[in-house]
Specification:
The chain is α+β, with helices and mostly antiparallel strands and 395 residues long. The chain is built from 9 helices and 18 strands. It is flat and about 80 Å long.
Amino acid sequence: MSDTLKGIVIALIAVIALIALLIWISTLEPAVTTTERERREAHVVSEDPIEDPDYNEPVFDLGYVVEEMSEHVFYDGSLELPVVGATGWTATNATLREEARTSADRVAYLSSGEAFTILIEDGDWWYVRVPNGTDGWLESNRCLINLPDVLPSIIYSISNAYSSMFHSSGYPLPGITYEELYSAYSHNDRLDRGEFIVPGMYSLAKALYEVQQLALANGETLIIYEVFRPRDTQRAVAAALNRMMDFNDEEYNETVERAITNSRWTVGNFISQGRSNHQLGAALDSSIGLVNDRELMQSGDYSYFQVTRHTRIGEPTPMHELSPRAVLPPKNAATMNDIGESIWNMKSYFERVGFTALPSEWWHFNHTASVRSGSSAGMIGDFFTPEVFSVPPTR
């Protein structure tokens, strides 16, 4: 072989070796410092650090709309799970009919607060079964539905059903605070777990679904403390606060009385003296938290996501503080130090889908359409709802 040919061969070999070396180097991971590795594992972006020490960065895609998953079927409607199999209650005295029309023959007469299982939905009518086995049709707009049955991703903590949180100027209400004011917890066969019983108007449930979707899309979740409040409970709370305001009563508390009378508010701004929108199932008391984790669950033929871990955020006051302290202050640099951004997010979510915030209680939201329909139907909330008859939904 000539010297020229040998030189060409050697050059080619050198080029091939250099290319192989470059390819091998490109497959190596760059050196990562301990600090950088910890940041990656914690899913924290160093250019945009999390300032809140209580915040835990979510480790999943927060979008609540699930991509196609062949092994799971998600309900495609205005709720997280269909109404079929859910527990409902008559909000007023109602007639159970043979057909889905007001002129149809009567099957049975139901008193307000009677429970049933929803079997079929047809327009504005539900075909239901009451516990004694009687079936018939009811108008859904005159009924309440158990919210956890159709909105299971929300965190429910119905405080008046285990330890009432009512205070005024930080003082407990005698005979009310820390007491179980009514029973509203049982095993729910539909969800296969113990859960609070949370009646709300059907129209409110659909609107609440939209609020929760807005929250979930932002890495947050609603925490519901009360929706339906029985009339007897409403009256008992109002009476307790009035006693604390009455100089001639042994329960009189000067701090409580002065905080309200020296403000532009009245007792009625903090606890209704008559019928509250809670008795209509048209109002709710809510806070909000940051989602840390969620789990894919199954109910009958449908899958859904349940929030399994969440972080509480800074709130203006404890829940159910009946005094001017509960008025949401203006959003500014000073209040941002004590109140989480999510509180203002929550208010925005509710107002965007037809709820009205109560100025004197940062946690209270009325669903305007449900208030109108409940009032026109003559609802007074003179019942308790201690049982559910929910079953898993089928397609």
